[in-house]
Amino acid sequence: MTRLMGLVSGIVFVATAVMAGCAGQPEHINLPSNAALNCVVMESVVVVDGKLTIAAGEKPTPGYSVELSKQQHEDGDLMVEYFIATPPSGRMLPQMMTSPCRRIELPRDWHSVTVVNRDTSQQWVFEHP
């Protein structure tokens, strides 16, 4: 019985330690977003009216897109990481100018959002007014 009680209390300790280790960690989220092929011509990252827009700039074919690789939320602070996806090599695509972007709906309670380009490590920080 003593051995069993020690085992049970050990399990409770481990569970408590694991849960305590998770406190204060950023929460992974999935913000609502949509992609578009014709946005602004210049590469840009902007926040307007509670929407974050990440624009890839002008591209020569419709095979490019802005993809989100990470989204995190911690106490009203958001972090969004993105990359520009390129068309598969060797694929036949029409030669037409596009300007792909992704528009992301920010939650009402956001305080700041940090946007990071995964490939270049360039980042932008926006504060909620």
UniProtKB/TrEMBL annotation:
Coiled-coil regions, chain positions: none
Protein name: PrcB C-terminal domain-containing protein
Keywords: Signal
One Pfam family of this chain: PrcB_C
Domain PrcB C-terminal: 53-107
Alphabetized InterPro entries for the sequence: PrcB_C_dom (IPR025748)
Signal peptide, first to last residue: 1-20
